[in-house]
Amino acid sequence: MDPFIKLEKVTQYNQLKGVETQHPLISVFDNSNSKPLPNHTRIHFGFYAIFLKAGNCGELRYGRNNYDYDDGTMVFVAPGQVLEVNNTDNYKSTGLTLLFHPDLTRGTSLAKNISQYSFFSYDFHEALHLSLKEQQIIKDLFSKLEYELSQSIDKHSKNIISNNIELLLNYCVRFYDRQFITRANINTDILSKFENLLNEYFQSGNTQDSGLPSVGYFADRLHLSSNYFGDLIKKETGKSAQEHIHLKLITLAKERIFDTEKSVSQIAFELGFKYPQHFNRMFKKNTGYTPIEYRNLN
Question: What is the pLDDT of residue 110?
Fold first, then answer.
């Protein structure tokens, strides 16, 4: 097994890269002026990391997927994630790196909103690919953060730094929205496969044993992270992946309600519900009627 390195502090990462620490909770630097990360290692991050890659930048792995970086690619890492480093012999560090510890943002709007940036939980093969204009916007924000770190710390420093990080992340939200749109063909294919998987799941006859399907189940079958899959479905259809699962359940339930030889509880169990009252509640929420009322009306 590859050596395991646990990094809880930004300063520890800086030491690995041979970079000067200007602030204990945040670091911004150009990778071309740093050392490569130790090869064939697994690194646990205790802080946020944002990488803007320029050219081939080695191979990292998160979860089960690899990503061989191209020019103008952004990758986001959240505290608690583990990355594997596998570089070629002639690998040279390039691009820009931003690291910041959660303690840096405490009491700021970024601390309240950080959980909304779901791309921190995307897999590496779901990275953000930037146009030249988009790259320049991100590089300008990196430069502003570098400038602020080069100044003496005062009462304004924390808010200015956190506001610039938040602005950078908001631009990334915009750029990801653009990426979802420009990959319409790929997204349509994923939607089609999702619908087929939904049908297969409920036609398998195993739902009573396997229970209700989760968003994570379908994301895994499609080789996507749950967050990326959920965001893609929401942006393409206006409904969440969970809503699509519920709609499929209600459609099937409406068909089976007319089988008067089966009780509502039997139908609920067959669909994968553990408790019939949960089925009743979902059915009424979506139709305005209880299953019994719907059966009687029709």
Answer: 95
pLDDT digits (tens, 9 = 90+) for 126-172: 899 999 999 999 999 999 999 999 998 888 999 999 999 999 999 99
pLDDT in tens, 39-67: 888 899 999 999 998 754 444 444 444 44
**Long-range Cβ contacts of 273-281 (<8 Å, 24+ apart):** 273/212, 274/211, 279/253
Domain 185-297 has CATH 2.60.120.430: no
CB 231 within 8 A of CB 118: yes
> Residue 233 has what pLDDT?
92
Average pLDDT over residues 229-237: 91
CA distances from 251 to 44, 217, 242, 255, 288 (A): 44, 20, 14, 7, 14
Cα–Cα distances in angstroms (integers) from residue 227 to residues 9, 25, 216, 238, in the given order: 26, 27, 9, 15
SS3 at position 24? coil
Answer yes or no: is pLDDT of 68 > 50. Answer: no
DSSP-assigned letter for residue 131: -
The CATH class of the 4-182 domain is mainly beta
Domain ranges in the chain? 4-182, 185-297
